Amino acid sequence: MADAPMPEEARRAAELIGKADIVVGIPSYNNSRTIGHVVRAAYAGLAKYFPHLTGVVVNSDGGSADNTRDAVLSARVEDRHLLLMSTPLVAAHRLSFPYHGIPGKGSAFRLIFSLADRLQAKACAVVDSDLRSITPEWIDLLLRPVLFADYDFVAPYYHRHKYDGTITNSIVYPLTRALYGLRVRQPIGGEFGVSARLVSRYLKRDDWETEVARYGIDIWMTTIALAEGFRVCQSFLGAKLHDAKDPSSDLTAMLQQVVGSVFMLMQEYAPVWRTRGGSAPADLFGFQFDVGLDPVSVNLERMVNAFRRGCQELGEIWAMALHADTYAAIRKLGREVSGGAKNFHLDDELWARVVLDLACAHNRHPVSRGYILRSLTPLYLARVASFVQETQELVSAQVEEKMEQLCLQFEKLKPYLIDCWDGRLQPAAKAGETPPAPEPAGPPSAAVEG
Question: What residue ranges in 83-185 does DSSP mark as E strands?
């Protein structure tokens, strides 16, 4: 792999610093309102928990127009507060650089990892720049398992509102768990700790110019760690309070890039996941406690309208991608929902089959992958709408139990996935054949979610 592009000012800074034990990276784009707090928490965490180690806080910015970089460099850390916690023996460096390459979070990560590798850091942590709930303890929890317990990858484990993170809850967590056999609850959480040897492995990869450079980076990192036998654990970070969005808002790009990355990695690691069955809990560090969470508003009707529109427009793609029984069940659901959103229900087994069928179709039809991923959006919104209706009166522990049942359904269908992957099960309509006519639906309505 060619050397990753690095701004000249970053090269000079790395030469000046020479070596560092720890790198904390903060990717950003127009986060001036929140990033100062994140920088202060990172700086304080290094001073309190790792006073004997050299730390570098790196902001990798994607061309912000709102003074994000100035907010990083001017973030004030009160020395007297740090002295109350621990006397820092080594001051942390603070850097902010623009990254080059494809715009997106993955390109920001690439610069952070390149700097960590150049500085020969023993461990690297990455945290989101829009966090309002980050504390200095997060830095300790993300780095200590790497530095002192020989883990390579530390995923976050935190409490989130039941309607925050629906891409994770409905697709990425249950699918990743069923594929690779480890229960990493937040595989696209945004905060990670990574060992030097795993950083080196990431940088050797040649797929940085793909969707990985955008929203696919988190699941790419997690999947490589799981599939290639690196030691993986989780750390409990409390609440994740950030700029959450209504699940019916337009996050189409995020959905397609994240799920597209999962599906692409399934092809690379098919020899791995075909041999793994069931799942085991991942080691969990940190003291768990209940936390208060920000509310997340949901526009149920908008999500159901998106599914209706999908029933009108996407019959041909769904028939080509979905198994005959899955497609028939979706058509039936389309007829039922035409009367309104009340009591709308897309059950766990049908939803798992939808996701697995689309993964297999993505593998079978390279030319049609964009269409297949776009056709997922209304189906995904249908599942979220169903989940919202089923869980409106449930508390978090009950919701988590429902999540567990969904995950077990994905695991149960592993033989089904292998049969579909190997072509022993046929879609409703083979490529090139005329599929059944799509069912009529209500008026179109724009909606998508993340």
Answer: 93-98, 123-126, 153-159, 182-183
